[in-house]
Design a protein that fits this description.
The chain has one helix at about 20-30. It is mainly alpha-helical and about 50 residues long.
Length: about 50
């Protein structure tokens, strides 16, 4: 029996992600000057990853 295509993880590594983790969002907001130390880490504004 063959494996379902959605269960094959080898080809999906290194792909483009469109959802950032919280620490990635904070780093991006810091870079853009929209987040300062002391700001809350919850309720962050929506951010899009930088185009590569």
């Amino acid at each position: 029996m063959s494996q379902h295509p959605s269960l094959r993880a080898a080809k999906t590594t290194g792909g483009k992600r469109n959802v950032l983790k919280r620490f990635e969002r904070i780093a991006l907001l810091k870079k853009r000057g929209l987040w300062k130390p002391g700001d809350r880490i919850t309720g962050l504004p929506k951010t899009k990853p930088e185009a590569v």
